């Protein structure tokens, strides 16, 4: 059934020729980029799962005034005592597979909630119009690159949301797709085809809606099938040419080159971004592939699409999806074109963050050769962050060349050929929890693997916000979403459990329905808000050099060690320093969820010589703040620190 539009569809361009970027930008003053993105606190939200604007109680408006119930405010605050597990699991789980109801208007309604959390940049899942009748609530199945999906709202609402966010000091990063569009056409007989030796497969035609067998002629449809506008085929019209598509079927070997470059991402149709080397023996040679790359016309069309969104909505950055499946030459071409246009708008530090799966080494190479500003999706980083905080992983060991621990990921940048100690801070996005968990079979959020995991959430968030990298919080983590899948022998649709609704609806966290989670009194929300505010005033926590510190139970010379798991478990203190100019911030987490621990930690001998004092300036237990500790002449300099159970502290 054709969609009904809440605004005049005639205002949406059918072709890129109708777009005059200079006219759109004329007379506008665009919001500036930040001086450094590692100063920011990002917050990733899935638009369909965040807010529908009907919530009341537990949170305030943008001015901090309490939001009360009314005729339109009908969803009350979640109470764990009465509302957890109030839904039939199977019915709840099925609801999570489709659209739930989050909107741009609802997201705008929560700007106050996000501002008080300490968020300075909102990363929004794709907003573009999806294939008609599809369940692609996540936004990655685009049918019209120039319009916003009605489920979310309108283009005008997106533009106004960004403007309002800017008024409150919050930037907006838009999640975008260049590699593929939605399931917009059908292969012959509407059958699935799979990648095989680069063969092109026959196509029946464009779809009018999801599941349609290809009733619209394959090719330019403006004259041959006027009924295709606006809900059928693909738009803008420049994307309808046959050569836009690789037409080589679904990827089967996700690590086979060039299969993962040329094949369809499941049912999502691969876009032909250009030609390069196809020899599997040369797949590793990124520089040679870039030199050989020749962009296709559609790559220029894609560049103009996203320049349009920058000019129209004043977007501050992009998160580029599925970089692994794009030719590095295409990534380089696109990123360069976007950066250039951003500078014409006065956005000198517009960021393009790439989702780069395939391991840390691959991510570093892709960043080096493509000009992407930062990487996320590095497979082992979220794992090491999460399970270090849970006491199941080594923090690392600077005395070895092994890359076994979280802190090893941020080792001496000279060893990786980088030109400064801050390289990793500016080029890696760090987060726990996310919407995909690529490579993980049985998926769950941080609090989903054990009833006691929430006790260590503050430690994990302290680690995330006070170590090197661009810190990002996944929506719901600040409310201790549990994202738990009770199935143990079935991993199908496993990512559903990572995407509960903040507004409750049919798919709230903790197997609840009809209750929202915008609770500004939640202890984790308040912890993050205090830490984010403290972090603003401490440049060392945002940009400082980073050193994992040796700790000791006794404080005796010769008894300081980098903590390591024993029999797979480590219930101990992990300490690290962030040093910048004349300042040292000694940070520490306690991976014991039930006991306060007091240990000795090494500190910088020059910045904190023996006989001076350091003070607890931040703690997950605020009553500890202000306590002083004297620097002792052990291992150069060392201090005695106390860390609350499952907690986080900073001494300065």
From TrEMBL:
- According to the entry, every stretch annotated as the Glycosyl hydrolase family 13 catalytic domain falls at 44-535
One Pfam family assigned to this protein is Alpha-amylase
Give me any GO biological process, just one: carbohydrate metabolic process
Q: Which InterPro entries match?
A: GH (IPR017853), GH13_cat_dom (IPR006047)
Q: Tell me the Gene3D superfamilies matching this sequence.
A: Glycosidases
Spell out the PANTHER family in the cross-references: ALPHA-AMYLASE FAMILY MEMBER, PERIPLASMIC ALPHA-AMYLASE
What this protein is called in its record is Alpha-amylase
């Amino acid at each position: 059934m054709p969609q009904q539009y809440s605004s005049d569809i005639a205002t949406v361009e059918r072709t890129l020729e109708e777009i005059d970027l200079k006219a759109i930008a004329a007379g506008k003053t665009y919001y500036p980029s930040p001086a450094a993105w590692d100063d920011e606190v990002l917050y990733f939200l899935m638009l369909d799962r965040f807010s529908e604007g009907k919530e009341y109680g537990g949170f305030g408006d943008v001015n901090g005034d309490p939001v009360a119930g009314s005729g339109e405010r009908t969803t009350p605050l979640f109470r764990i005592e009465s509302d957890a597990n109030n839904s039939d699991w199977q019915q709840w789980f099925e609801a999570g597979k489709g659209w739930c109801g989050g909107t741009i208007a609802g997201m705008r309604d929560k700007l106050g909630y996000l501002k008080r959390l300490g968020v300075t940049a909102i990363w929004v899942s794709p907003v573009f119009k999806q294939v008609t009748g599809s369940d692609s609530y996540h936004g990655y199945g685009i049918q019209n690159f120039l319009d916003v999906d009605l489920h979310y709202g309108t283009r005008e609402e997106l533009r106004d949301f960004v403007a309002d966010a800017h008024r409150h000091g919050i930037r907006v990063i838009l999640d975008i797709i260049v590699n593929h569009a939605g399931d917009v056409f059908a292969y012959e007989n509407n059958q699935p085809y799979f990648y095989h030796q680069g063969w092109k497969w026959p196509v029946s035609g464009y779809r009018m809606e999801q599941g349609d067998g290809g009733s619209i002629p394959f090719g330019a449809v403006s004259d041959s099938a006027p009924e295709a506008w606006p809900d059928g085929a693909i738009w803008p019209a420049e994307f309808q040419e046959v050569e836009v598509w690789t037409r080589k079927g679904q990827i089967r070997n996700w690590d086979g080159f060039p299969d993962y470059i040329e094949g369809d991402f499941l049912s999502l149709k691969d876009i032909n971004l250009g030609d390069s080397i196809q020899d599997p023996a040369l797949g590793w040679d990124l520089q040679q592939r870039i030199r050989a790359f020749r962009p296709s016309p559609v790559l220029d069309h894609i560049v103009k699409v996203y320049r349009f969104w920058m000019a129209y909505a004043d977007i501050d950055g992009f998160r580029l999806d599925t970089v692994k499946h794009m030719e590095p030459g295409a990534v380089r071409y696109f990123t360069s074109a976007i950066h250039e246009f951003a500078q014409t708008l006065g956005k000198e530090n517009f960021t393009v963050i790439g989702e780069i799966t395939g391991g840390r080494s691959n991510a570093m190479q892709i960043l080096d050769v493509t000009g992407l500003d930062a990487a996320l999706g590095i497979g082992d980083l979220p794992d090491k962050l999460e399970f270090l905080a849970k006491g199941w992983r080594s923090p690392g060991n600077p005395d070895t060349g092994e890359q076994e621990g979280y802190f090893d990921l941020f080792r001496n940048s000279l060893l990786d050929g980088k030109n400064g100690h801050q390289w990793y801070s500016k080029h890696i996005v760090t987060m726990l929890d996310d919407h995909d968990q690529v490579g993980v079979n049985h998926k769950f959020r941080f609090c989903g693997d054990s009833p006691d995991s929430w006790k260590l959430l503050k430690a994990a968030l302290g680690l995330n916000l006070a170590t090197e990298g661009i810190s990002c919080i996944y929506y719901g983590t600040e409310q201790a979403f549990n994202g738990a899948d009770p199935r143990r022998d079935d991993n199908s649709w496993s990512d559903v459990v990572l995407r509960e609704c903040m507004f409750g609806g049919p798919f709230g966290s903790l197997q609840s329905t009809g209750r929202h989670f915008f609770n500004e009194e939640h202890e984790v929300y308040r912890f993050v808000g205090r830490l984010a505010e403290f972090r603003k005033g401490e440049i060392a926590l945002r940009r400082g050099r980073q050193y994992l510190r040796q700790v000791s139970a006794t404080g005796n010379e010769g008894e300081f060690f980098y903590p390591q798991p024993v029999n797979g478990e480590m219930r101990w203190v992990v300490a690290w320093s962030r040093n910048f100019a004349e300042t040292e911030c000694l940070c520490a987490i306690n991976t014991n969820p039930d006991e306060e621990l007091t240990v000795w930690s090494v500190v910088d001998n020059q910045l904190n010589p023996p006989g001076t004092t350091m003070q607890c300036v931040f703690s997950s237990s605020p009553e500890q703040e202000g306590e002083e500790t004297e620097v002792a002449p052990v291992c150069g300099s060392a201090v005695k620190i106390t860390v609350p159970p499952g907690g986080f502290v900073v001494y300065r």
